[in-house]
Amino acid sequence: MVPINASIINVSLPTISVYFGVGLSTVQWVLTSYLITLLGFVLFFSRLGDFWGQERVYLAGLLGFVSTSLLCSLSPSIESLIIFRGLQGMAAAMMISVSMALVRKSFPSHMLGRALGIYAVAIAAGLALGPAIGGILSGFLGWRSIFLVNLPVGILDFIFCYTILKRSQKSTVKWDIPGTVLQFVCLFLTVYTLNMVEVASYSTATITGAMALISLVLFIYQELRSENPVLDLKLFKKKTFSAFNISLHFNYLCMYMMFFAVPFYLQKVLHLDQFTTGLVLTASPVVMMTVSPLSGMLADKFGSRVPAFLGGAVSAVALISMTQLTVNSTAGDVFIRLALLGLGAALFQSPTNRALMSQLPSEKAGVASGIIATTRNLGMVFAVCYAGLLIHLAISPELMQASQLYGAAAADLTTGLHLVVLFGALLSVGMAIISIAGLKHKKESLVKYEKVAVAKTIRAEKKLIGTISSIMLVMNRDH
User: Fold this and answer.
1) Domain Major facilitator superfamily (MFS) profile, which positions (predicted)?
2) pLDDT digits (tens, 9 = 90+) for 20-43
3) Following DSSP, what letter does each residue of 109-158 receive, concatenated?
4) Pseudo-torsion of CA 217, 218, 224, 227, nearest 10°?
5) DSSP secondary structure string, 281-303?
6) What's the predicted TM-score (pTM) here?
7) Is residue 328 part of a domain?
8) Is residue 467 one of the residues assigned to a domain?
């Protein structure tokens, strides 16, 4: 539900903008508020899951998600919708922060890449279904109905998970409250600063930018001296771990800039309805659903280096090809290019997630899951800011409030989309290069990781054989 809810709103953002009579810089907060609270609390809840139990955190998040979805559908104003979306993001953080740790618990090391490939399919399925469901519901029943789809799905999910998941033992939680608060403040101020730059309020942006920098310095200082940090910065001393996190962040920046920017191009320039827009946006996730398990299996067998590099290269080619889109392009032209982008993401994400999870011991699974979720959601948050800023370099906020654009205005928005995809192409090249650097010694570390599991299996087998031999000796003596 979390990825569905992250993508289901994108198709309706142009409609919500017109409905409430607000511009792009305001309506993007409907998406940004959700992502900020999701990101701001994901590390907090991942740590809570390590002590209170991942299963309990997940179930509590499900209840909160269903409740806030109902509130979003009843929002009387754009301000209340933004607030309720923020609360919904907090509930989503409870679910997503522990999801990968639950996957790690459920599969042995030699099947981890395959399992994470299936996990990537679940994420891609949500992203794929989101635009289609959002387009259908919003087109026939209005934008408020897109939040109601979470109610039956969430209730069934809660019943299923409550029955299946076994609750782990609780232990005392040692909180890092200052670190959690500083992380959230830093993130909010950074996004707000970018938003002020977008609307040309440079004096305010200077003040909030300085405050964001101060809060970042205080956060780093707090985390380095804390005995129980919300984010263990020492983990980033591992070059491979750091390299893969950066490249994964770049990948989500590229993907989510497209999910944010393309609906405006499709509806305002190509004049497509919400239903058709939703179908076009399914191109990338559908390909990811198909290819992600295969790339995970390839990573299990041959290592992560080659598929991760190819993923970055394919993504770059796909994004560069989008510079050929014009005011006269068709839905098919966009669909093909988004499908190619989905292929690149599928080749990249599963091997990268596998490499990240294999870097840390099993007791750090919750921390790793939280960091990966943070990397993903940080990319989503800044993708909205960067895409909005680049689009506004080409077209004025006043023109963006129109339901459809023609002539020079349509060409300006198309130019804004070109700026976004060129920036994404540069990031894709960067993530391919970083992946190669991060994987320089990855084969050896993965081999070591697998050897530990094999050694444990061999020791268990020896004990079993020894026990059987002792029994056989006793039986022979009796005879």
Assistant:
1) 1-442
2) 888 777 888 888 788 778 777 877
3) GGGHHHHHHHHHHHHHHHHHHHHHHHHHHHHHH-TTHHHHTHHHHHHHHH
4) -160
5) HTHHHHHHHHHHHHHHHHHHHH-
6) 0.69
7) yes
8) no
